[in-house]
Amino acid sequence: MKATNNPNVSNIALTGPYGSGKSSIIKTFRKKYGRPVLQISLAAFLPEADGSVTTGESEADASKKGAPKKPTPQKGTVSKQEIERSILQQMLYGADANSLPLSRFKRIETPKWWSKFTSLFIMAGLFSCWHVIKKSDEVLSGKFFEPLDLATNWLNLATFTIGFLFVWLAFHQVYIKSLGLSLKSISLKDIEITPETAKEESILNRHLDEIIYFFQATKYDLVIIEDLDRFNNPEIFVTLREINSLVNANAGVKRQIRFLYALRDNMFVNTDRTKFFEFIVPVIPIINSSNSIDKVLEHGQRLALDTRLDRQFLREVSRYLNDLRLIHNIFNEYGIYVANLETDGENILDANKLLAILIYKNVLPSDFEDLHRGKGKLAEILARHDDYVTSAEAKCKAEISELERQINDVEKLVPADVQELRNIYAMALLAMVPQDFTYLVINGQENIPIVSLPTRPDFDQIIEKDQILVRHGYYNQRQNVILRDFQKSVYPKATYQERKAQIELKAADHRDGAAKTIRDLRTKLSTLRTAKFNELIRANSREMEELFNAFGENRDLVRFLVIEGFLDDTYYQYTSLFHSGRLSPSDNKYLIQIRSFIYPEPDFQIDNPKEVIAAMREDDFRQKYVLNKALVDCMFSNQADYRTQIAKFVDYVSSNFSECEAFFAVYYQTGKCNRELLTTLVERWSGFVSAAIAAPDSAVHVARMIAHLPKSVLQILPRKAPGFQGFLARNLPRILALQVDFEPSQLALFSFEVDRLDSIEPYPAIARLLSDHGFYKVTLENLEFIVRDVLGVGEATALDTKNYSTLLQVAYRPLLDKVRADFDGYLKTVLLLPGNTEEDVAPIIEVINHDDIEVEHLERFIEQQTAVLPSLEQIPLRLQSTVFRLHKIAASWENCRTYLATESFDAQSLTAFLAEPGVTDVLSPIMIDDGKDAFGLRQFVIGNAEFDADTYRAYLRALPKRFSQFPDELGADKMRILIEEQKITFSTKAFTFLSEHTELQVMFVAKNIDQYLAQQDQYSIDDEFRERLLATGITDDRKLKIIEKMDLTSLAGQPRRASLVADILYRTDVDLGHLPSEAAQAIVLSPGPLKARIVLFNKCHGLLSDGEVKSTISQLPDPFSQIEPGWRQPTIANTPDNQEFVRWLEARSIISSSKPTIFTDEIRIYNRRK
């Protein structure tokens, strides 16, 4: 508005890209402008000038293909004169013809409301002229005007006046019309003379006077020109600007005329734009590839399509649509197509595909038109479908053949590799055999040549022996050959069996991997024909690139629609209405082929099977012709109408089953009556199930039977073919790998056991069903799979060490029922595995209480467990000795007492149990119950001669009471321990029991010295026994009491006894006045410390006579023995005891005198001379 009010602005540019909304802005502006506006649009030329209208093939392409060159439609080119003519026409013919009476461009004028009065005026004028001419003489004489009274001469006056006005107006119109006449050419019959410049000059400049007259005669002050930029002709803008300047400069135009141009941004470079336009208004686009989704969704809501269209598809396709008018038109057409294609009210068409078709139609209308005739770029892409399918099938089949060949080669290589391994070991063994020993002796009888050893079936057993016997080939001599380290000498890292297993395992792994790949390829192969078109295109996207490039700037849009599956070979369903007929061309082609003895493929398209069946001969149904998917669908969907044909079909299949594999492969994938077909075959052909499981595609047949047969029919399959369930168990992974969809509960109708559940790991629903129904063999691997993968419990690793405990903890009832149904087998195959050692107590007790399992297996199970059973109560009698023998019972006196009282008690087992150091450490600190119930246990412990000394001593300390007597048949070492531990009450009976073991008697008395001393008279013992008692560790006061009972006069002849008594008397410092002289002399002379003997001598010298004293001194060691009459002067140590000794010697005049020495601490004794 600002620019239109600016007197300095005459040329205004409204700039923006295509689809930016320039037209909408102009419409809004016109509503607000309020003054007359002339709008000129050149859209009429756009179909000719638009580059989107192109041919399907260029001349270059045609020449490459060898086609003759012919003119092909190219982009339309519109001349400047044509553009100017259109502008001039829209300008002049846009105004009313009556407003431009002087224009040379004649147009049909529409009579106005006053035209009736005009025609009446003409009639009156003609009448008046006729009347005046008739009265011409009177007019010339003047009588015609007399009298000048209207009342009397009104007719003459009126006719003259009207006639004059009529003639004047007629001449005036002639004059006006003559102003628009011009001479442009002269035409004489067939000859036209026209100036050359008239053809070449600008039409606008040629008719500049018309344009100026137009603005003089009309009230327009604004001219809006649209779509002028699409012709890429800047010269027209020069002409229009020149005209604008001339119009505004004309004196006859009293107002300023402005031209408003709507054009794209890149029409001029920046400097040119400012030269042409005084004011430029940029338009910010309201839609582009990033926000077009909003407009798409808006139209979807307008047509109530947002529930049918995929939001993601709309979001992605909108990136290729940036023209609002195009989007609007697409959705308008969508509404029309839906209304015509879905007349039955069922929304069976894919709304996304229909929208894709319409996008393609609006963006590429020419190619869409060609598509109806099977031509064009998209038709060429669609025509590649069969080529790609054939190529993919050939590739899959080639890969399958190669893998099968590899499997066959591997199977052949395994025996060869094993034989080569045998030869290696046989050669090594032969090198160990002495020369000329050519025969191997088997079982002591059979002689076989050593050279034939590698081919022997018992080769594996022979080389596993520690030694073999060989025989000389001539002398019949025999010799043993040691093979203990033979295998290590060949290969130290593995044994023969391990290497053989590695060869077989490697081959098995390769075979299994190749078999899995083959299954995948077969699955892919079976679905190629039914694969979606876009999937095939994606797989061959590189080869399609050239075809997509043919779409030019729209190639990305077409590629997206095709590869995403929105444009495919089903397009015809969305582009035309269906009209039914009797036979389609495809039906007719099928009938022609079978009449020519050509067998069509099983998936040959038949559009009207009922009509085709009616046209076929009766015998055709006993031929291979009947193996057509559409025909079988028709027959089995209308069985009542085609009983005869179905019977013949079954006869043919039963007689030629091997030739029907291709048909079944197709029909299983795409047929509609699989249930009816299979049911009929099972019921009418008794050998169908057996033939199916023996066929090359047996897994496919069984999978389809499970998927489609009703339960009532499935249940009879094992009766139809006894090997059916075994086949199912062996081949279930193959069956599932085919990806045939069926309800897992169908498998529950059979009874089979799968070897390896992990082979069906990719099929969790099947795995769950097999687990729920126990359709598997009980193995560690299967149990781990169920716990880990089926139940999703993270404790599967515990199954290796505590299998049954883990199963009980998981508490999966079907699994527990399965293992309990054959617990013996479960125990042997799983629980007795070497690693299963950590079972909990409760599961162990449950296991060992199975009475139907042999004892030796239960003992093995108990032995390998680390758990210790707490109580003997729940352990069956037949295993109680076992748990003690194997040390698998908790160490408690109660368990021992209970076991001792049972019928299964075994003393050796309990002894071995108690002798275990760990058990001893636990039980020895615990006192045994002192009640009557535990008496037998206490008696067993004290009388057990099998214990070692330490164990026996430890258990004696656990006895709460003493026994009154020593157990019978107990060794001296055990009785010694009994005495040491004081577990026998001291009595004459017990003392007498030890009569043959004097040392034990002595020990027994010593341990019970007080009881003995209190009753000494009851025990008949001698001084020798008392001597032994004195040598024990009893106290000196008790020893003195024993000495009192001894005959001390006998000490002279018993130096050891005398020494014992002397030591006791010395230590106790008792009065020795009661000793007899013989005893006194014996204790002084007894072996022992000299100091102690001098002390005793000092105490008892008074009991001796001088002669006895001298005799005693003479028997003392030096220097005391030197105290005797003579010249000697012995010296002794100067101690108080020696001083006492010298003193009483002097007193008894046994020595002369004594005195201490000067230089040493000694006493010098002076003997008497005589």
What is the radius of gyration? 66 Å
**Secondary structural class:** mainly alpha
Which whole number gives the mean pLDDT?
80
The share of residues in helices is 40-55%
Number of domains: 7
Strand content: 5-15%
Low-pLDDT segments, ≥5 res: 46-76
Describe the structure.
There is one protein chain. This protein is mainly alpha-helical and 1170 residues long. It folds into seven domains: 8-65 and 72-81 and 195-282, 3-Layer(aba) Sandwich (Rossmann fold); 115-179, no CATH class; 292-384 and 540-575, no CATH class; 389-527, no CATH class; 753-867, no CATH class; 882-1105; 1118-1170, no CATH class. The protein has 61 helices and 14 strands. Strands 2-5-6-1-7 form a five-stranded parallel beta sheet, sandwiched between helices. The chain is elongated. One of its GO terms (molecular function) is ATP binding.
Task: List its salient traits.
Rossmann fold; mainly alpha; five-stranded parallel β-sheet; four-stranded antiparallel β-sheet; 7 domains; YobI-NTPase; ATP binding; ATP-binding; 61 helices; 1170 residues; nucleotide-binding
